[in-house]
Amino acid sequence: MTSPPTHSTDSTARLAKCFHALADNVEQVVKGKRDTVELALICLFAEGHLLIEDVPGTGKTTLARCLAASIEADFARVQFTPDLLPSDITGVTVYRQNTGTFEFLPGPVFANIVLGDEINRASPKTQSALLEVMEERRVTADGTAHPVPRPFMVLATQNPVDMGGTYPLPEAQLDRFLMRITVGYPDHASEVAILTGTRAGTRTGTAPTPESLTPVTTAHEIAELIASAGEVQVADALYDYLVRVVAATRALPDVRLGASPRGSVALLRAVRVRAASQSRPYAFPEDVKALAGPVLAHRLILTPEAELSGRTGTDVIDEVLATVRLDSGARV
């Protein structure tokens, strides 16, 4: 492996500065979860969508709201329920009697950041309303395409327990999420800080909330930085390694359906952002290893036998990363 250049481009340095300012801001509320917060931000700058899956009370919705509150941008929240209709999300075309014309009224999906709370509680018909906008960033109504603003990110939450009355997300929709992450329980010190409202070394007596956060950047700056992330250099050997990792998920006997080429593209975008967030204008194999789980695990469909034995997509990704090696003669 050759030594990469030691200098950082202006664009990656600017992205890294904004990235860590956002992470620090979110951590005022979501305490002790720096790795999780950074994964969410990687998803944002990779212009992907994020699925946060965890048990109730761990801060899934709070994380999404804090991220939205840290950016001066349009934000919309949709509480998914069984009676929610597709038009409640995408919008509806109405007839104006005074003008004799039809007018499209945009739904909440026409925002920079859209929070879909408990997304698996809506019917499959309503869930499918997000398929087009999550992939193509537009909504087609009555034959007319209406683009959503940029940047555009869907943050969805769901609980892996209490599945009564829920509709599991279909594979096609899961594949549209760039990452699936969990928040997990805070450590002891972080939970004490949540209760005491500890902030900047002092006890305020009041725990900070998403509403108390001040935006540290704008939607316009985020859009500019998303474009700059594409400038991160990726060596041919790293392209090869990334593709071999994804292809390996399709060859294991425990996997019925492996990651698609969309997974390869998603992983590459995330890898570039992780490198830029560390002020590096180049990507490392370690970037692939760090992000393969969150980006690929939810795209895998295991065999019934593997599921019964307790295997998960994360276990499969760990096995792949342990077996697929970077070419020893490659230059990265």
Key terms:
globular; alpha/beta; 14 helices; single chain; 17% strand
Account of the 3D structure:
With 332 residues, the chain is an alpha/beta fold. It is built from 14 helices and 15 strands. A five-stranded parallel β-sheet has the order 3-6-9-1-10. Helix 1 (10-27) packs across helix 2 (34-45) and helix 10 (236-248) packs across helix 11 (261-277). Mean pLDDT is 88; it is low at 1-7.
Secondary-structure blueprint:
Blueprint: H1 10-27, H2 34-45, E1 50-53, H3 60-69, E2 71-72, E3 75-79, H4 87-90, E4 91-96, E5 101-106, E6 113-117, H5 124-127, H6 129-136, E7 138-141, E8 144-147, E9 153-158, H7 171-174, E10 179-181, H8 188-196, E11 198-199, E12 202-203, E13 217-218, H9 219-229, H10 236-248, E14 255-257, H11 261-277, H12 285-296, E15 301-302, H13 304-308, H14 313-323
Parallel strand pairs: 1-9, 1-10, 2-13, 3-6, 6-9
Antiparallel strand pairs: 4-5, 7-8, 11-12, 14-15
Helix pairs in contact: 1-2, 1-9, 10-11, 10-12, 11-12, 12-14
Task: Please report the total strand number as a whole number.
Answer: 15
Q: Give the amount of beta strand, in percent.
A: 15-25%
Q: Could you state the oligomeric state of the chains shown?
A: single chain
* Main pleated-sheet profile: 5 strands, parallel
How do you describe this structure in short?
By secondary structure, the protein is an alpha/beta fold.
